[in-house]
Amino acid sequence: MNKGVYIALLSIGLAQGLKIPIHFVKTRKWKPELFFQTGGMPSSHSAGVSSLTTYIALKRGLPTIDFALSMIYGLIVMYDAQGIRRQTGELTLKVNDLGELVEKVQKDKPVEFEEKTPKKLKEMLGHQPEEVIGGAILGIVTGTIGHLITKKR
Length: 153
What we know:
By secondary structure, the protein is an all-alpha fold. The chain is 70% helix and 0% strand.
């Protein structure tokens, strides 16, 4: 595997690992399972694509097709992470609240139907813009350090 892939994977792992202490500082709750979940600060999507793009820019240069492809791909990933995926997460919050609403309606007016316990949908899918920016900054730092460490002297 090439160094750019290693650096991007390391950046993703760092971002996922940082979610645990950042969440703890915000909420005083220790949740190691955040390492395996999507969403939260910083965005591992942004960290991965930014570190790879930074590494390519420093290694191959800005006028290369490699950099252009990585940058455009990265921008699409980051836009999707904070746009469509975040909207999906917000919609999921509303859908999960519907169960409680139906329960309240049932108590007032009985309706005949077979009740199945629905599985609660995952609510933390996408990222807030600051989470995407945080991931991008982490990725740029990781990509720069990765380039400096792997640079031939």
